[in-house]
Amino acid sequence: MTIPGLFQHTPLLISSILTYAAKAHGRRKVVSRLVDEPVFRYTYADWANRTAQAVHALERLGVKSGDRVTSMAWNTHRHLELFYGVPGMGAVLHTANPRLSDEQIVYTVNHAESRVLLFDRTFIPLIERLKPQFTTVTTYVLMAAQDEPGYLNYETLLAAESPAIDWPQIDEYAGAFLCYTSGTTGDPKGVLYNHRGVVLHAMAGGMNSAFGFDAFDVVMPCSSLYHANAWGLPFSAPLCGAAMILPCEKMDGASLHELIDGEGVTFTGGVPTIWTMYLNWLDQNGKKPKDLKTIVIGGSAVPFAMAQAFKDRFGINVRQLWGMTETAPIGVVSTPTPELAALGEQAMNEAIWSRQGRIQFGIELEITDDDGNPLPHDGETSGALKVRGPWVISRYYRKDADCTDADGWFDTGDIATLDENGFMRITDRAKDVIKSGGEWISSIDLENIAVGCPGVKIAAVVGVPHPKWEERPILVIEQHEGVVVSKDEVLHYLASRIVKWWTPDDVVFAPVPLTATGKIDKKVLRVAYQHHLTK
Ligand code: ADP
Description:
There is one protein chain. The chain is built from 16 helices and 25 strands. By secondary structure, it is α/β, with parallel strands linked by helices. Among the domains are: 11-203, ANL, N-terminal domain (Rossmann fold), CATH 3.40.50.12780; 357-429, Luciferase, Domain 3 (Luciferase, domain 3, Roll), CATH 2.30.38; 434-528, GMP Synthetase, Chain A, domain 3. It binds adenosine-5'-diphosphate.
């Protein structure tokens, strides 16, 4: 029999990160690019004031605790205000992903049953097109300095409101964000984050085992705010007193570099495609980032060659992150440990770059065989990756049953190994594995090696039907602009780096399709090349 502890029952609330940052780091800057306005700058203190004004404005529009509000917006200060204001008032922010198909966007907004939709100017045509199909939205608010007939204006609404607020002390288990996974098959699925999970995730993200922020950091999230909350960076940064730079949607090399050097960015993060472009741009323009120390890369496997290039040429540490919308998203982050450091710097870096990361406090990991039996953590045996923890999904939004097993484990759909140091390595997504003559070929490993071949921008490997071996890998390559790579060069590059039977049966040069969250769309590739080896 336990006895009750005698500490206070202060709930872990998202609004508490904002009030803390405004008090303890009130003068720290927030800099935001905007769609068609000059760069905007203010401080955490100003941000807290405007967020309070946004809450009052939403209240005046009739938004109540528990209501859903949709944002369709880039990485800007206005979106950041909604990130805190909407959950802070007890409502739920549905961060719509504008890169989904029209049909999927309509599905998510209607499924969320949002009453208010706030959007950036970029999305006026989209809103006009889809408005008749949004069944629950009654109020549209344009987030721009300049008015537009037919829409309420965010700035006008805020100007009428007071910056004073008493943040409500809501239940820490209350819903805060509604993020939909794109789902390559079927309808998108809603993941409803709660306050407690977001706050604990923000604390875990700030620790040295993950991002390791302090008040001297200048953090620029380049993963979208609408994709798994930009990996929690908009929470971990203010919680640690780090400044925040918001790049809007402008992710080309020149635009990124202007902010990175102009604002003294020390830490940034995003999917691999962004950093491939940035690295290429740095090379082409002979530039070197001034203050950038760390880039966290995730969403897809980090090409080893990219991590090595950032380190060798610019002294920048690449940290890999694995996660998913269902895990808010941090699952593992690849950071050094004394055991790895003892191997020497290069060996340590190689170990870090070739693994998705190590377990973080809060997230438990397990790998199992097809019958659900745990497999050894020997770094070799691979199995279905399961996760559990306070920022892991228990049930999809508006579903009747939990999506975890009886012990609370959520099956990620990834295939992975775990080792004795707590490092996890993804070998494939369950639906992408290639089985050739009864043996597994890791498409992720093959891609990772192929993308190191000079001139290759994106490498995608899919298994396609083969008359003799059931399935064989083919490699689809998108080259860097203005570069010509031959099939022989690619095969020659691979020859010394892979076992012979992994050699792709063909190398095709073609544009590689990406999903709405910037991952290689293997479903499209599998369909496109299904007869490639049988015709
Ligand atoms: P979507 O499928 O909508 O893009 P998520 O962003 O939730 O949604 O995708 C999560 C998946 O992305 C993971 O299950 C995993 O397959 C893949 N992933 C994420 N990070 C990595 C990584 N560092 N290496 C390999 N795969 C990754």
